[in-house]
Amino acid sequence: MMNTNDDLKNGKLPKHLAIIMDGNGRWAKQKGRLRVFGHEHGVKAVRDVAVNCSKIGIKYLTLYAFSTENWKRPKIEVDTLMKLLVSSLKKELPTLNENDIKLNAIGNIESLPSRALAELNEVMAKTSQNSTMTLTLALSYGSREEIKNAIQSISVKVKNNIISPENIDETIINNHLYTRNLPDVDLLIRTSGEHRISNFLLWQIAYAELYFIDVFWPDFKEHHLLEAIKNYQHRERRFGKTSEQLN
Predict the structure, then answer these.
(1) 79 a catalytic residue
(2) For this structure, is 22 an active site residue?
(3) Higher confidence at residue 237 or residue 20?
């Protein structure tokens, strides 16, 4: 159990935390094991982070689980990841309900294998009434594809005189994204020591604080999460204004 919750709550918590979970394969390779071994251990880190975030008071947690580019990986790895998704969803349903966590998904989820999609939809339905935290899995997700799809949808509505071009604003764009029901990201964490965004929530992180940590995802523990949030709480978020204006 955490013993630093009160310390964290003295500062402003990020309402929406997003994480690029990177390093499963390299973690496994360091141990002389196959990449799949790393993905299996990464699931435990997902469970721990989700439970800890709900207890801290984070309202929205979004995890980059599988990108549109990940389909290009070796077939055996992709197949194993999809099987792992199904088994993990089944196994973690009690944990989600016990911690009042609602499961959500963004991305081109219709491209998932039928069994994985069915399990995903079932768990989302069985957690739909939970309200302490929303856990969003970005699956078959790519931000550029998301933005492209939004532009196409808006264009059709302009063509059919449903939307006037001069009325297109940020709200209309937001309403055509996968994340239409989520607030903008406040804090983005990437593990493994890489310093890239990798086509993740490009629109939604416009004013997010970025935090990079040189730890592979399976080794990302509770104290790493707390350190990231504490670091966030010591930053000044100006949103284009000056410090004097904020004060």
Answers:
(1) no
(2) yes
(3) 20
To which residue do tokens 């939004």 refer? 150
The predicted structure's pLDDT at residue 1: 41
Backbone torsion region of residue 203, taken as left when φ is above 0, otherwise alpha when ψ lies between -120 and 50, otherwise beta: alpha
Asked if 45 and 217 touch (Cβ cutoff 8 Å), the reply is yes
Give me the domains of the chain, ranges plus CATH numbers: 13-141+184-235 (3.40.1180.10)
Report how far residue 63's alpha carbon sits from residue 30's, in angstroms, rounded to the nearest whole number.
24
Residue of 5, 70, 199, 231 with catalytic role = 70
Query: pLDDT per residue over 84-125, tens digit each?
Result: 999 999 999 999 999 999 999 999 999 999 999 999 999 999
Q: Quick: pLDDT tens for 18-47.
A: 999 999 999 999 999 999 899 999 999 999
How is the chain classified by DSSP, letter by letter?
--S-HHHHHTSPPPSEEEEE---HHHHHHHTT--HHHHHHHHHHHHHHHHHHHHHHT-SEEEEEEEEGGGGGS-HHHHHHHHHHHHHHHHHHHHHHHHTTEEEEEES-GGGS-HHHHHHHHHHHHHTTT--SEEEEEEEEE-HHHHHHHHHHHHHHHHHTTSS-GGG--HHHHHTTSTTTTSPPPSEEEE-TT-----SSSTTTTTT-EEEE-SS-GGG--HHHHHHHHHHHHTS---TTS-HHHH-
Q: Is the pTM of this model over 0.85?
A: yes
Residue 204 and residue 64 in contact, taking contact as beta carbons nearer than 8 Å: no
Catalytic residue among 5, 7, 10, 22: 22
Q: How far apart are the first and last CA of the chain?
A: 36
Type of residue numbered 135: L
